[in-house]
Amino acid sequence: MPVVSKSAASETSFRIADQPIHVQAHSPVRGILLLVASTVFFAFCDVITKSLAATLPAVEIAWIRYTTFSCIVVPMILLTGDRTLFRSKRPGLQVLRSLGVIGSTLFFAQGLRFLPVAESTAIYFISPILIMAMSILFLGETVGWRRWLAALVGLSGVLVVIRPGTDAFQATALLPLLGATSWAAGAVVTRKMSGSDQPLTTLAYTAVLGCLGLSALLPFNWVAPTGREIGLGILMGLFFSIGQWLVVFAYRHGNASVIAPFSYVQLIWAGVLGYLAFSAFPDSWTIAGACIIAASGLYTAYRERVRLLQARGGA
Fold this sequence. Notes:
The protein has 315 residues and is mainly alpha-helical. It is 70% helix and 4% strand. Strands 1-2 form a two-stranded antiparallel sheet. Helix 2 packs across helix 3 and helix 6 packs antiparallel against helix 12. It is globular and about 50 Å long. It starts with 10 loop residues before the first strand and ends with a helix. The N terminus is likely disordered.
């Protein structure tokens, strides 16, 4: 998920996979529409992932996704003619970040094997709160009491969804939570290497390392896919790649603090597509928990915007 960074004058600074970029602001409305479009593709990607998870191991599903992603990202970098994009100034951190992102994909895919898309997505959206908490622990960032309170509210939303201690609780609900934690760890590592590499370099490392790393695990988790599963897997990877690029273009048109909160629209698509594909309508607990998590995330984004405006005013 995009995370707000610094901004100044006519430039808007934003992060794609927490990688800072400085671009000229254009049309926030266009940026919002592009981001909302990306959530549609990500939701379709999750629905396909759940369909494949019924018959294929999570490692194989993730391998198909990252192989397809690599086949798109690497040629695009080659077409730029800038081979330096394949070289990182901090390769160790790039590897750590990639491991976090790959782990996130594996946990989430495994969770979808047992949980509805809407429930998994709702739990996963706790990741911005986890990023904030980890940034305090590992980066020494300062967070005010309002954002701490928002974090506690977000965690309560997760508890509403998974309902520990009740008959409705499933241990598998912890899988998307682990996925969100893994993603947050990767995001914090990326903040650590802030400004070191270009966004395309980060995307290339994630795609290629994901493909290579999962290829090493593939022989131990291989199930011969059918033609239908291969087709769905390629479509999944294509939707994932399109979603990533739509996010990139979205943040070329406005401030991240304005655009980022609209990523929560994905909760709606997850519920609708999950129902259409699997006849699984979110129960009242999932809807209530998702609303609490979204409200917490939106308030956190608002406080981040206030903090940035205050910092800019004092600069």
